[in-house]
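Here is a protein:
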Amino acid sequence: MHRVAFFEDLAPRWDEISRSGDPRMLEVLGQVPFAPQARILDLGCGTGRTVRHFLGRLGPAGRVTAVDFSPRMLEILKGSVRDPRLVCVQADVGELPEPLEGFDLVVLFDLLPHLERPREVLADLSRRLVPGGQMVLAHDVGREQLNRVHDEQGGAVRADRLPGDDLLVAWFQSAGLEIEDLQATPSTYLLRGRKSQRAVR
């Protein structure tokens, strides 16, 4: 089953499926600093778990651009979150529209293992950050459990894996990001990098 069809099928049950991970999501994303007026790009947003978290921490001038390739996921998100600070975009993370740029924070939550060309995608996302902007890769489960869940789930996600720390750090650095935080626990994962203030997009 193609990945889009796989997640389209799960969309009506996604909130129920993912609810048990909410405390860990809040734990890991709560450590990510950003200003109340930040412009956030939330990739693979699903039905809006992370979107709600970010909107709750932003002020009136903040913005969240939520991207997902599943129309049904976005339909549920738009039906449950009505906020003028939110913009929803249906797109593949590997083929984002050019106007999506100028972000203070780019977040890939529970997403990277599903990308077909992760190194190239990270390089493209770094280009869309402002100088001094941050990129965050996070999960509400640890690497071992995440990889096991994908293997047991089978189908379109059977081979989806979270690579080792050395490789992820190398990808971040090759994208022009300086590592500021790396936490790999049995129950969560967080990698945070910052684009140089002197970077030229």
Observations:
- The domain at 3-194 is CATH 3.40.50.150 (Rossmann fold).
